[in-house]
Amino acid sequence: MRSVELFAGAGGLAIGMANAGFHHAAVIEWDHDACETFRENQRHHLRSLEEWPLYEGDVRLFDYQKLRDDVMVVSGGPPCQPFSLGGKHRGYMDERDMFPEAVRAVRELRPKAFIFENVKGLMRETFASYFEYVNLQLTYPGLTRRKSESWREHRSRLERHHTSRRAKSEYNVVFRLLNAANYGVPQRRERVFLVGFRSDLDVKWNFPEETYSDDALFHSKWISGDYWDRHGVVNKKRPRPDDHQWARIERLRRVILFQDKKLPWLTVRDAITDLPDPEKLRKTEIENHTFNPGARSYPGHTGSPLDEPAKTLKVGDHGVPGGENMLARADDSVRYFTVREAARLQTFPDDYTFRGPWTEAMRQLGNAVPVRLAETVARSVANALLGMKGQG
């Protein structure tokens, strides 16, 4: 199944797509450091990356006529800074808004499906009208914006078309805000996914069900104790529930739990416990696992506790990783996550390396889609397309 990856960044969505069985006909990214990360892994002959045609440059200049064969899926994460809660919130006024290019790729390639993702901020009330506009454009990519039209005028024309009797959608589009922790990622990270299938295919699809839960983690820590047993934490070293947790324990004990058989959320400890403490290492042979000094806690940036999913890895407004990209120890001290630890929290494979200094590598990771979440969504789309193909 051939695919095209737009705005590839560090490769989280691209790797997830490949793991789900897609073969990239083109991987497009303008950021040089992110492209160097791809090339570094291609030089190491990592998985199927060496076969990916990488195009470093502005997606607005890419000629899709180069891709002669049928492309089944277009995927990508249009740059999210215009809508990010950590950015300036300029949205469609921001020149970094690349949703028009995502629509162009769909219009020119006519894939059977597309998968686009973005930050939670895209669903803020401030951007509600533009989010509606994005959905309408993806539903009718052939109804293009005229040179003289503002985006609001184009949206109105799309609305009139959508409500008319002659309207026939080109793509059936659905969206949902997904929390990566609910899909086996050791991080609380919410991303908006927009998935569309070409309407002439009559594909019936829904977002994959959540398989991990906060309640299951709470039960394994405070009721069954399985979590501490698994990590070899003896009773005297286990934390004690506070008043709020005791109330929740009593509530959960009164109900029949886990009829849906969900697994416990994964935690920072689950993700990095087998890695040596980088602060105690003089040198390390583990790629990207080098201690970075200078971490400090301040209001709003307190780090991630060891026994909870990590807080969302972030990129600051000026490209500097946010202050929450830290481990919060039990003694209230903090240290920065190493690049390898952050990659674990984003479920990148251990043999995937990142180029550049700590700040640059963390910027790439802060912008990335967790590989496991990407693979889960991509695999469900692949199964729907393969099922359709089998019926035909």
Keywords:
single chain, alpha/beta, 14% strand, three-stranded mixed β-sheet, 392 residues, 12 helices, seven-stranded mixed β-sheet, Rossmann fold
Description:
It is a single chain. By secondary structure, this protein is of the alpha/beta class. Among the domains are: 2-210 and 369-391, Vaccinia Virus protein VP39 (Rossmann fold); 219-258, no CATH class. The chain is built from twelve helices and twelve strands. The protein has helices at residues 12-19, 32-43, 99-109, 128-139, 151-163, 214-222, 226-230, 243-253, 268-272, 339-345, 358-366, 371-391; strands at residues 2-6, 23-29, 54-56, 73-76, 113-119, 171-179, 190-198, 212-213, 263-264, 304-305, 326-328, 334-336. The strands form three sheets. It has a seven-stranded mixed beta sheet, with helices on both faces. Helix 1 packs across helix 12 (371-391). It is globular. 41% of the residues are buried.
| Pattern of helices and strands | EHEHEEHEHHEEEHHHEHEEEHHH
Assigned CATH architecture of the domain at 2-210 and 369-391: 3-Layer(aba) Sandwich
CATH superfamily of the domain at 2-210 and 369-391, please?
A: Vaccinia Virus protein VP39
Strand content: 5-15%
Write a brief structural summary:
With 392 residues, the chain is α/β, with parallel strands linked by helices. It has 12 helices and 12 strands. The strands form 3 sheets. The chain has a 7-stranded mixed beta sheet, with helices on both faces.
Question: Topology of this structure?
Answer:
Blueprint: E1 2-6, H1 12-19, E2 23-29, H2 32-43, E3 54-56, E4 73-76, H3 99-109, E5 113-119, H4 128-139, H5 151-163, E6 171-179, E7 190-198, E8 212-213, H6 214-222, H7 226-230, H8 243-253, E9 263-264, H9 268-272, E10 304-305, E11 326-328, E12 334-336, H10 339-345, H11 358-366, H12 371-391
Parallel strand pairs: 1-2, 1-4, 2-3, 4-5, 8-9, 10-11
Antiparallel strand pairs: 5-7, 6-7, 11-12
